[in-house]
Amino acid sequence: MPDDFIIAIASGKGGTGKTTIATNLAHYASGLGKKVQYLDCDVEEPNGHIFLKPKIEKTWKVTVDVPEVDLKKCTGCGKCGEICQYSAIICIKENVLTFEQLCHSCGGCMRVCPTDAIKSRPLCIGDIEFGKAGDVDFVHGKLCIGNVRTPSLIKEVKKHIKKEHLTIIDVPPGTSCPVVEAVKGADFVLLVTEPTPFGLNDLKLAVDLVRKMNLPFAVVINRYGLGNDDVEKYCRAESIDICLKLPDDRRIAEAYSSGQMIVDVLNEYGKEFSELYEYTKSVKAGIDDKRRLRVWRKNNS
Amino acid sequence: MKIAVTSTGRTLDSQVDPRFGRAACFIIIDTETMDFNVVENESVAAAGGAGISSAKVVIDAGVGAVLTGNCGPNAQRTLSTAGIKLYTGATGTVAEAVELFKSGNLTEAAGPNVKPHFGMDK
Questions:
Q1: Is B2-111 CATH 3.90.1180.10?
Q2: Å from B86 to nearest chain A CA?
Q3: For residue range B28-78, what is the model confidence (pLDDT) as tens digits?
């Protein structure tokens, strides 16, 4: 049973179908009676809710600490500005300027201040909403417009991962900090790509990332039949499993554009998601075997 | 008066760098004697906060004014806190910009003339 298993659905290239795969897999597994949790970590533009249509039951504000300076206590020594690696605080003569959007909340300025003139102040960076989409536990983060603290919000969203659930994480596109934060700690990563030169280029970047992070992964080719077979050749050469090929079918695009799920409106694709689900189960079994073997070796050495 | 001019090169014949925060270097020049020295900009490739750290560089150099092409809000706020006059829209060579400044033909900027990260793709 893939209970207590975290799958991160990432891509490199945007628009390859991460959310399509993530929401349909969550919905499908839940339909089998599994305990499923869906976490939308694409907090800059979450869209899983359009398909899963959750009933939001609770909203939490997420804040980070940024510095606030009491100029009456400040001696203008400039130590705060010297330690800050992001120019988020700077001392100019008797004045201290802070730039809250550049702050990474390390707390360094507060620690080095000899007169205790810097206090922390909460800055709201976004919301986390919780709800139910049928039997799927739904969580997503929504970053405040104009805010850049994406990884901080993703970290907060991931604090709500439940035990004994199949947790599906919808990862933002790209291969930068937000992606690293979102895939960190996952048991398995599905890299969704499309069979085009753009899809392949960004897939390679994403493969580099998950390999550096030592995360087991496999590839999903969406819109299969489009473009060329270079993605397949690459995967073969690199011994990467392709666990699903979802065809380039206009009806899938039509379902997507009206916020419907493939497994609900196009019955014939139930087989694809069933195979994908079985594949993740076999991956979990393999990982569990390795863990058991490690424990056994440790106990018998 | 000591002023700073953003420059693409190390001489007075170099073109004015249109970016403040990510200028190649700063030419710190005495407008009376035309003596100058060059300060390399370590923030050229900074991930963020380039405008602020560049402002700190020219503040520490003790200039009274900055001539550049464009300046964003964070750098502008930092410069104005230090009481440094900002002149945007400078073009041509560094020497030409200084002459325009001396003859009073540059207008002081009322605020930032570009958004943050303007210099990132240039």
A1: no
A2: 16
A3: 999 999 999 999 999 988 888 999 999 999 999 999 999 999 999 999 999
